[in-house]
Design brief:
The protein has about 350 residues and is an alpha+beta fold. It is about 25% helix and about 40% strand.
């Protein structure tokens, strides 16, 4: 079973152009800022937004090809979709919501209800079978929506921000439960999320979209180690600078500040710096750091016993220090500080 999609959609001034291929059993996460085309991609795969050009094939069957004049209606595709707000039928019980997906595929009512009950049991919801959606918790509603989507055994499962409506505690529990069910799913899953933890926990591969095109595609470990856009770097909590390298010196764009690096490089590069590698000083530092810049504290975020300090200046960086160091230095928003980074703490790779 394979998905082979060449998606081209025009909507006003927005243009989506991407290719997406996935084999059976793979979970692909689509990441990207708002307006990058994630939801439009899902809607095209589901048949809710027809292609302007291109082709979508699922297990060799053409689902949408404008040039061939072929378009398979959503209910005739072996595709299930879970929306962000679940879209459960409010007048139906949990059991009948799950059975609805089976009935839509031509299964008789008694058999559909029997199979639906088995799916609710698989999700630990047997005792909530008679409950209406308004009587379910957020986590229970998410499980019912997922059971409804999986019950017809689709070839392609589409998840649009499936955990976004949950509180932090419930989200962690449901994420773990969802991972277990996706591991057992024989088809292909495409997941849209804004949360890198969802991608890390659920996906085997991440596709990053930006302005309607793929900007990066690979395993989550590759994105973490070598982000290729500021969006991805921010997502994984790293500092990313663009520059031109000549030996051990990188000229940072657009400020033309110089960055000394340990490994030689030449040409257009990315320079990756972990926040924990950025030291903060209230006075110009001496000693070993060859990279130092005057900056202004733009804000800070508490992360447990550590503080992430955002700085503005010729080389804007995020530093991560202990809460004790933050207090000792007496840092505050608007304060002038020096940022310093050792050459050995900078990773460069070609753009």
């Amino acid at each position: 079973m394979t998905l082979d999609a060449d998606v081209h959609v025009r909507r006003g001034t927005f243009s989506l152009d991407l290719s997406l291929a996935a084999p059976s059993g793979e979970v692909v996460a689509l990441l990207g800022p708002n307006g990058s085309g994630k939801s439009t991609t899902l809607r095209s795969l589901a048949g809710l937004t027809p292609l302007g050009d291109g082709c979508i094939r699922l297990d060799g069957d053409v689902l949408d090809d404008p040039r061939m004049g072929r378009f398979v209606l959503p209910h005739d595709r072996s595709v299930s979709m879970v929306f962000q707000d679940y879209l459960l039928f409010p007048h139906l019980s949990a059991l009948d919501n799950v059975a609805f997906g089976l009935r839509a595929h031509g299964i008789a009512k008694a058999e559909a209800r029997r199979d639906a009950l088995a799916w609710l049991d698989r999700f630990g919801l047997t005792e909530r079978a008679a409950a209406k959606p308004a009587e379910l918790s957020g986590g229970q509603a998410q499980r019912v929506a997922l059971a409804r989507a999986l019950a017809p055994e689709p070839s392609l499962l589409l998840l649009d921000e499936p955990l976004a409506a949950l509180d932090a505690t419930t989200r962690a529990l449901v994420r773990r439960d969802l991972r277990r069910h996706l591991n057992d799913f024989a088809g292909i899953t495409v997941l849209v999320t804004h949360d890198p933890l969802d991608a890390l926990a659920l996906a085997s591969r991440v596709v990053v979209l930006g302005e309607g095109a793929v900007t990066q595609d690979g395993p989550i470990a590759e994105l973490t180690a070598r982000p290729r856009s500021r969006y991805v770097a921010d997502l994984v909590g790293m500092n990313l600078l663009n520059g031109r390298a000549a030996g051990h010196v990188v000229t940072i764009e657009p400020s033309d500040e110089l960055l000394t690096v340990a490994d030689q490089a030449n040409g257009d590069v990315y320079a990756l710096i972990a926040p924990r590698a950025v030291a903060l000083h209230t006075e110009e530092p001496g000693g070993s750091p060859r990279n130092r810049w005057l900056a202004t504290i733009a804000g800070f975020d508490l992360l447990g016993d550590r503080v992430r300090v955002r700085t503005d200046g010729a080389v804007p960086l995020v530093a991560e220090i202990t809460a004790g160091a933050f207090t000792t230095l007496g840092l505050h928003e608007g304060q002038s500080v020096w940022t310093a980074v050792k050459a050995t703490e900078v990773t460069t790779y070609l753009r």
